[in-house]
Design a protein that fits this description.
The protein is of the alpha/beta class. The protein has a domain of about 210 residues. About 30% of the residues lie in helices and about 30% in strands. It has 19 helices and 33 strands. Strand 2 and strand 3 form a beta hairpin. Helix 7 runs parallel beside helix 10. The radius of gyration is 28 Å and the shape is globular. The two termini are about 20 Å apart. The relative contact order is 0.12.
Length: about 700
């Protein structure tokens, strides 16, 4: 069963297969012609410069960039253009600072391309892993196109953690160790979540100060807003805690993320039935005090209104023009998270609508009292795609009452102040880094003008619209190639488990689902694609009997009786062996991960089991297979990019003990949302199989 809270967090929050895989098996979509090349000196001429600080247009300017920095800004008659500079005619166009998305969850390098193509030149990433650090470095070195990355490590939460990829902790000393480790590993800041206790919060804040790291995130349910602000919480995400901080009646439950708290969910449902006057529950003086203290402490608020609308009756809608650029895994995940299984009752939905409106009202009051806002999208929660969602978030803020020029500052100048880099980022002035967007229209009149991009400059490189579009088109081509591979794959009945599609370097494909719902057995359905043909197999794994049946073909059984295992194929005995209490038939594909997980069950790190195995291949041809003994060892639990997001997975290593014909391989089995499903499969330390969805 999928973890309800995780799904809602996401919702808010003729030539054969080988030729089809020419594009598919690139794990990083990178336009190689544009990587690692720094543009020459550049001069934008006759361009209208947007002064975001004052909300003004300065017309017919020349802006000179040398070595990635703005060196001159002035009227065209007063500025000398360096010899050999690339001159870009800005007549009737508008030069705007690069956007900064202050709340994203990066997964792959493709995400960076979507952001860059939409004018986002800096991101604050709210959950990071070692792969994120590698992306950050690659961008800094000019090896990967994308925005500047400032990243947290794994999110720190209470127990049990809201998502399996979060680090759940209840001991303050353990929390200190997590902070120290993330600092040592090179992460930029710490993100906390809703479930940590006041004691853990205090420990995190104290340890973070020791390492000069800022702490941001959800306001924990057990930590009062004033306590958090005075302790130095740098930014509060989603405006969580605001309603509770302004409550006139302390007996009212905290309504934020009500799906996490049955009492809050019931109160929100009552609110939807009209049993409470929500506006009477808040005290304006309390919200003014929050604004005052936040200014004094240098704290910030990131509303993520567009993403938070997913908890209302007007969620972020699908948009085929944008969604096609997201990975296939993410598109599938969005479809699932939007499904009826996770719909709210009408009363609860009306209650969430009221909570959203009240939170927006309090945001306006905060802003009016001088509090600081940042723009963040929370991409890629359901139908909130990287990059494209920036304009939607700005529109949501304007609709909620934030003046248009102020919303634009919240995406440019305010983040520069937040990072302590005012004068370097967020505006167009001499000495600033040349993070720039050339626009066709004036965003001060309509933030939608940020969609009409003529080009983007980031990390010292200018990319015109055609080049950016070409990078996006490459992502679509890759997705279509993958879909083509699986277009003829068999459809399985829904077993209540996540579908896993894998591609191999040799062009083979595997589709597998493991259903653990039966106490007596695990049923695994697999399909193997080779040379444009698919073969389906159903595998029932029980304690003393395994049955493998190929569609319209071979039936293989493995039965344990009187201390021995007997392997038969279509009724003929292949071999009988004595010794190990567990055994299995293998296929040499990622389906083996699901099979062996069913055979050994959950093992703790360091535990191991021996088993007899016969490698019969995907065709189930066991006629010449000989029994071998393998050792299956649980190595560790780690967080990896999985089914469209970061998830926690158990790592198993398999090696031959006897005969040695089995090539060592490793597999990863998901916890949390996709529990029990294979998410990675490597043979002999390489990655011949890549999970697609």
């Amino acid at each position: 069963m999928k973890k309800f809270s995780e799904v809602l967090v996401m919702r808010i929050f003729s030539t054969g297969l080988i030729v089809r895989l020419l594009v598919v098996l690139l794990s990083w979509t990178v336009a190689q012609s544009s990587v690692g090349k720094t543009s020459p000196d550049i001069a934008f001429t006759d361009v209208n410069v947007i002064d975001v600080r004052n909300g003004l247009v300065v017309e017919k300017q020349t802006v000179v960039i040398e070595a990635g920095r703005i060196t001159k800004v002035g009227s065209k008659d007063s500025i000398a253009i360096p010899e050999g500079a690339l001159v870009i005619d800005g007549a009737e166009k508008y030069l705007f600072p690069g956007l900064m998305d202050m709340h994203v969850h990066l997964l792959t390098p493709d995400d960076l391309i979507l952001l860059l193509a939409n004018g986002v030149t800096t991101v604050r990433n709210m959950q990071g892993e070692p792969s994120t650090l590698r992306m950050r470095e690659a961008v800094e070195l000019g090896q990967l196109p994308g925005p500047r990355i400032v990243t947290a490590g794994r999110v720190i939460d209470g127990m049990p953690p809201t998502a399996s990829a979060f680090q759940g902790v209840t001991d303050p000393a353990a929390a200190r160790d997590i902070v120290a480790r993330q600092a040592q590993e090179g992460y930029d800041f710490i993100k906390i979540y809703s479930g940590i206790s006041l004691e853990v919060f205090n420990a995190v804040m104290q340890e973070a100060r020791q390492h000069n790291m800022e702490v941001v995130g959800h306001l924990p349910r057990d930590v009062p807003m004033m306590t958090a602000l005075k302790a130095g919480l740098k930014s509060t995400e989603h405006l969580l805690g605001l309603i509770d901080a302004a409550a006139a009646d302390e007996s009212v439950p905290n309504m934020d993320l009500s799906f996490l708290d049955p009492l809050a969910r019931e109160f929100v449902t009552e609110l939807g039935r009209g049993e409470h006057d929500l506006h009477a529950l808040v005290d304006d003086q309390e919200i003014l005090e929050v604004a005052t203290v936040s200014k004094e402490e240098g704290a910030w608020f990131t509303p993520t209104l567009y993403a938070m609308s997913n908890m209302t009756s007007n969620p972020a809608p699908p948009n085929p023009m944008w969604d096609k650029y997201m990975s296939i895994a993410m598109q599938d995940l969005w479809d699932f998270a939007s499904g009826p299984a996770y719909a709210m009752s009408e009363d609860q939905m009306r209650g969430e609508d009221a909570v959203y409106e009240l939170r927006s009202l309090l945001m306006r009051k905060l802003l009016g009292a001088g509090a600081n806002l940042l723009v963040g999208t929370d991409s890629p929660v359901t139908h909130v795609p990287f990059g494209f969602a920036m304009v939607e978030e700005l529109r949501a803020m304007v609709k909620a009452g934030v003046p248009q020029d102020e919303s634009l500052r919240a995406a440019t100048l305010n983040p520069a102040r937040y990072f302590g880099r005012e004068g370097e980022l967020g505006e167009i002035k001499t000495g600033a880094l040349a993070d720039l967007i050339l626009l066709e229209d004036n965003p001060l009149e309509d933030v939608g003008a940020l969609r009409e991009i003529a080009g983007v400059m980031s990390q010292g490189q200018w990319r015109a619209r055609d080049e950016l579009q070409g990078m996006l088109d490459d992502i679509v081509k890759k997705n279509k190639s993958i879909e083509l591979v699986f277009s003829d794959a068999p459809e399985f009945p829904d077993p209540g488990a996540a579908l896993a599609d894998f591609l191999a370097e040799d062009g083979s494909a595997t589709r597998v689902i493991a259903d653990h719902s039966d106490d007596d057995k695990t049923t695994i359905r697999a399909a193997f694609g080779e040379s444009d043909a698919w073969k389906s197999v159903t595998i029932d794994v029980g304690e003393e009997k395994h049955l493998l049946q190929s569609e319209g073909g071979t039936t293989v059984s493995l039965i344990y009786q009187n201390g021995q295992w007997t392997l038969t194929s279509d009724g003929s005995v292949i071999e009988s062996v004595k010794g190990e209490p567990i055994a299995s038939v293998l296929t040499g594909t990622p389906a083996d991960a699901a099979i062996l997980r069913a055979v050994v069950g959950d093992l703790e790190p360091g535990e191991e089991r021996n088993a007899f195995v016969w490698n019969c291949g995907p065709s189930l041809d066991c006629s010449s297979a000989l029994s071998e003994i393998i050792r299956i060892r649980a190595v560790k639990r780690e967080v990896i990019p999985g089914y469209g997001f970061f998830l926690e997975a158990d790592v198993y290593e398999v090696a031959a003990v006897q005969r040695g014909n089995i090539t060592p391989f490793s597999f990863w089995i998901a916890q949390g949302f996709a529990k029990g499903q294979p998410v990675r499969y490597e043979v002999d330390g390489e990655k011949p199989w890549r999970r697609i969805r």
